[in-house]
Design goal:
This is Aromatic acid exporter family protein. 83% of the residues lie in helices and 0% in strands. The protein is mainly alpha-helical. Helix 3 crosses helix 4 and helix 10 runs antiparallel to helix 13.
Length: 378
């Protein structure tokens, strides 16, 4: 019997490893595709900025135009347009400060240090730490070390930076915008699939009284926060794209649903992690586990799967709501059959997670509480 159980456990561990490796491979491919699009955006924006600065404005030294364009494209996924404007402001501030201070101090190693210090300090006073400070300091370095001293260069360089920033925004929002639905799908599916998969694994561990497997689930969930946080960042960036890019306006409804639900999804994940922690304690203390309790946890995971499918299909997430409430009803049934201390907390955490999922589907906080209380009463 032990040999059979050990073999089954080995097969299960092998299957889990294969699943994780396959998921990691798909994630790497998807990440590569996104970065390829960003690289294309950067190349197109740099070329456009150079042409406008040199051929239209007649500037023989258009270096800062493509530099600003690439800086805008390289902005982080979250809040790209505001960050892009901050980057442009940083380039302009660095140019002005560098040019003015070179006239006062000249060029050299200590002069470079003083110029960068003053440009960075000015950025800190204006906006604080962040992209503005980094870009102002970096641009001041270029001005102090790579650009020859010459009068009246502030305006041409500033215009170059503005042209580059505008080119970056034009490419990012109009000419070659990232597909927000595809970007969200590539981020959401791994994150929510992980969430649902770990709920299924914890339900199986609870049903099989396998405390070691429950501990493994808990460890994996502890390391998964980044995926859920990334989903929130991507949803914010996608909402920005559909708001500013006319090409993507028709996707606003789907993106708005995801954007509104990501905060509640993160809370549901954290509460579910607390649920798994109590499952470990329940099994360790050999508390009673009615069959309805693992069934409730499994239904909670299925609600997450349904939520993702219905959001992507732009449907009202009715099935996800019903499955979350079904999980609450199953947990209430388990509670009435008799649970230990930790088992009772498992039920409480499940209800809280279900409440979060209901709010992620667009249900108001008060209505979600009412529905959960009604389902818990049976």
């Amino acid at each position: 019997m032990r040999t059979t159980a050990g073999a089954a456990g080995g097969r299960g561990a092998t299957d889990d490893l294969r699943t994780r490796v396959a998921a990691a491979g798909r994630e790497s491919v998807d990440r590569g595709r996104i970065y390829l699009i960003v690289a294309l955006q950067a190349g197109l924006a740099a070329a456009l900025a150079w042409v406008v600065a040199r051929e239209v404005l007649g500037n023989p030294e258009p270096t800062f135009a493509p530099a600003a364009a690439v800086a805008v494209i390289a902005a982080s996924l979250g809040s790209r347009a505001p960050r892009a404007l901050e980057l442009i402001a940083g380039v302009v501030l660095g140019i002005i400060a560098g040019d003015l201070l070179i006239g006062a101090f000249g060029t050299g190693p200590w002069q470079t240090g003083v110029i960068v210090f003053l440009a960075t300090a000015t950025a800190v006073l204006v906006r604080g730490v962040g992209a503005l400070m980094a870009q102002a300091g970096g641009t001041a370095v270029l001005i102090a070390t790579l650009t020859p001293t010459a009068p009246d260069l502030e305006l041409p360089r500033t215009l170059n930076a503005l042209v580059g920033g505008a080119a970056g925004l034009l490419v990012m929002l109009l000419l070659l915008p990232i597909n927000p639905i595809r970007t969200i799908r590539r981020t959401a599916e791994p994150a929510l699939d992980l969430f649902a998969r770990e709920m299924t694994a914890s339900a199986e561990a609870l049903a099989g009284a396998d405390s070691a497997r429950a501990k493994e689930v808990l460890e994996r969930m502890r390391g998964a926060d980044q995926k859920l946080q990334q989903l929130g960042e991507v949803a914010t960036a996608a909402e920005e794209v559909v708001r500013l890019s006319p090409v993507r306006w028709r996707r606003r409804r789907v993106i708005a649903a995801y954007r509104g639900g990501t905060t509640h999804m993160e809370r549901a994940f954290r509460n579910s992690r607390g649920l798994v922690r109590r499952i470990v304690t329940t099994l360790r203390d050999e508390e009673p586990v009615p069959a309805d309790l693992p069934a409730a946890v499994e239904h909670l995971g299925e609600a997450v799967r349904l939520l993702n499918r219905e959001f992507i299909a732009a449907r009202e997430p009715v099935q996800a709501r019903e499955r979350a409430l079904h999980a609450v009803r199953e947990a209430g049934s388990a509670y009435r059959q008799g649970l230990g201390f930790s088992g009772t907390i498992v039920v409480s955490q499940l209800r809280t997670a279900a409440n979060d999922l209901l709010q992620a589907t667009g249900v108001s906080r008060d209505e979600a509480r009412r529905l959960v209380r009604k389902a818990a009463a049976g």
